[in-house]
Specification:
The complex is a heterotrimer of chains A (about 180), B (about 210) and C (about 170). Chain B has about 210 residues and is mostly beta strands. Helices cover about 15% and strands about 35% of the residues of chain B. With about 170 residues, chain C is of the alpha+beta class. A 5-stranded mixed beta sheet of chain C has the order 1-9-8-5-6, with no helix packed on it. In chain C, strands 2-3-4-7 form a 4-stranded antiparallel beta sheet. Chain C starts with a helix and ends with a strand. The chains are: A mainly beta (about 180), B mainly beta (about 210), C alpha+beta (about 170).
């Protein structure tokens, strides 16, 4: 009788432990989740292999650079930032995304080489210049988050996040984006 | 009572039970139309200017143009070939960017949206997709932002003349959930969801607004 | 106690098998990883040469030009950077191999940062290895680095590797 009771208790204990393990085991998404480093506009942010500082954010209807002019049915969000690699240059490209609500926007490639988005990053030598996003008119207000990573695969690597309040920005008719420069600290 | 039922059941030959169950299943299937394939809904035919809304992209085709090439953009077809250009307004109705051109890494796959029915066309996917206003290669469609795009395919020069009717297939795909390996969303193989027939305009110069 | 005595064979097998399983699993995962990128350095002190793959290698000369200097601004170096140029002599012992070159910043034996070679400011005839040469030749490889690279107690060394010899590579100090 005592033997049976003991077996029963051990069984219950094992079931409780098993239940606990099942509920606390990380899901695939949690295991692969990026490591997020957050900061504000103006603060230098640093991850495993990418370091970014966001300088300014503008809203515009039309954007022009040295060799391109772009129109959009939405609104341009133009971000001025500096980016560098931290430990190695292999595979280091600036991947930039803008998250507004439940929608994600990727950096526009229309400016070609006049944007620093998708350009190679150098270790310790920042590249400074504009990143352009096209967003719908109704999304260009309220809170948004800029996310920077060293390539398009966000899993288990650093993501640098900067909060931006788009509602405080004036919509410019035509914006001349800054030229790209390298170096400086 | 129970023991007599058991004895009776033991005496019924197995093949009677099997046949009986099969008959029951067939009879039940009659309730929902039988076991033959359901007749597929016919694919709708659109008129120029209509939108075709898919899972990720909504496209309204404006016009179709045939042209020798775009020398300013260094886009020239093979000798004996010309370009067929489908010009339309595409809008991303999904919540994340949708690629329209193949990246240098080969992933993610661009979403197939439209293709022309041309004799001997090698691939459904367009050779080039350009943003109409600045003639740059179309990268990602951004959620909620309509863009006028030009989709290009090469075709044998004599196959289409000015005024000939060209039939376009409009494509859709189904969202299948997260990637099993890697990351990102998965979509099924694209399928034709609508067609559209319109006359091709021969253009020696496409006016780039 | 008697339970242990009557099951001692199984227990002994466990004691042998558990570490063996862990060891095998780890090596299966990690050996392949380390074998395919430069992870075993052979250190070559300054002014010495080393045999590696089918050639002997040594550093002939090394210079570092700052963006602040006259030469640096003539070259157009970005602000806050230095251009490190390393001349390497190659004495082939067979057909000379092609090599991959990187610049490592080290604290003792730990690599902190690595730079890839640049061709942006090249003036020398040869900027890297030539494959299948039978005679002695030299090349000059260049790296654009921030001015603080290798500062204080940190050192810089040339990381030279060929695909046949991986994971072994040469760490040439200059």
């Amino acid at each position: 009788m005592t033997r049976r009771l003991l077996n029963g208790l051990v069984l219950v204990a094992l079931l409780v432990v098993a239940g606990f393990v099942i509920h606390t085991t990380p899901t695939d998404a949690q295991r692969d989740a990026p490591i997020v480093v957050s900061g504000a506009i103006g603060s230098p942010l640093s991850g495993r292999n990418i370091a970014v500082t966001v300088h300014e954010v503008h809203l515009a209807d039309v954007v022009s650079t040295a060799s391109w002019q772009g129109e959009t049915e939405g609104v341009w969000v133009v971000v001025d930032a500096s980016a560098a690699a931290v430990e190695t240059e292999n595979g280091a490209l600036l991947n930039a995304a803008l998250v507004i609500g439940d929608r994600t926007f990727s950096a526009s490639g229309r400016p070609g080489l006049d944007t620093i988005a998708d350009q190679s990053l150098a270790v310790g030598i920042p590249i400074t210049g504009p990143i352009m996003f096209e967003v719908p008119v109704d999304a260009a207000n309220g809170r948004a988050e800029l996310r920077f990573a060293q390539n398009g695969d966000p899993r288990a690597d650093s993501v640098l996040a900067v909060a931006v309040d788009l509602s405080g920005l004036e919509l410019e008719e035509m914006l001349t984006a800054s030229e790209i420069s390298r170096g400086g600290s | 009572m129970a023991s007599r039922a058991r004895d009776l059941a033991a005496k019924v030959p197995t093949k009677w039970i099997l046949a009986g169950s099969a008959a029951l299943v067939l009879a039940a299937s009659a309730l929902f139309g039988g076991l033959n394939d359901a007749p597929a809904d016919p694919i709708p035919t659109l008129r120029p200017g209509d939108s075709s809304t898919g899972t990720r992209v909504e496209l309204a085709v404006d016009r179709v143009v045939v042209i020798d090439g775009f020398p300013d953009l260094y886009l020239e077809p093979e000798p004996g070939f010309r370009y067929l250009v489908v010009i339309g307004t595409a809008t991303n109705v999904w919540s994340s960017p949708v690629p329209q051109s193949l990246s240098s890494f080969g992933t993610p796959q661009p979403a197939t949206v439209v293709s022309p029915r041309i004799e001997g066309l090698e691939a459904v996917a367009p050779e080039e997709v350009l943003v109409f206003s600045d003639a740059t290669t179309a990268g990602d469609l951004q959620p909620g932002v309509p863009v006028q795009l030009a989709y290009l395919w090469q075709f044998p020069a004599e196959a289409i003349a000015d005024g000939d009717e060209v039939t376009l297939d409009l494509w859709d795909e189904t969202y299948e959930g997260d990637s099993l390996i890697g990351f990102g969303d998965r979509f099924s193989d694209p399928f034709v969801t609508a067609t559209l027939t319109l006359p091709a305009t021969d253009s020696s110069v496409v006016d780039n607004g | 106690m008697s339970w242990i005595r009557s099951n001692w064979i199984a227990l002994a097998a466990l004691v042998a098998l558990i570490p063996a399983t862990i060891g095998l699993t780890f090596s299966a995962q990690w050996l392949g990883y380390f074998a395919t990128w430069p992870s075993e350095p052979t250190v070559v002190p300054v002014n010495q040469s080393a045999t590696y793959d089918t050639a002997d290698w040594s550093v002939l000369d090394a210079t570092r030009v700052s963006a602040d200097s006259q030469e640096g601004s003539d070259l157009g170096l970005p602000e806050g950077t230095d251009l490190v140029s390393v001349q390497v002599r190659v004495d082939p012992r067979g057909p000379s191999p092609y090599c991959t070159l990187e610049l490592d910043e080290l604290r003792d034996d730990t690599i902190l940062r690595t730079w890839n070679a640049t061709l942006e400011f090249t003036t020398a005839e040869r900027s890297g290895c030539e494959s299948d040469y039978a005679v002695t030749y030299s090349f000059e490889t260049q790296f654009l680095v921030p001015s603080d690279a290798g500062a204080d107690d940190l050192g810089l060394a040339l990381n030279l590797s060929t695909t046949d010899e991986l994971p072994r590579y040469l760490r040439l100090y200059f």
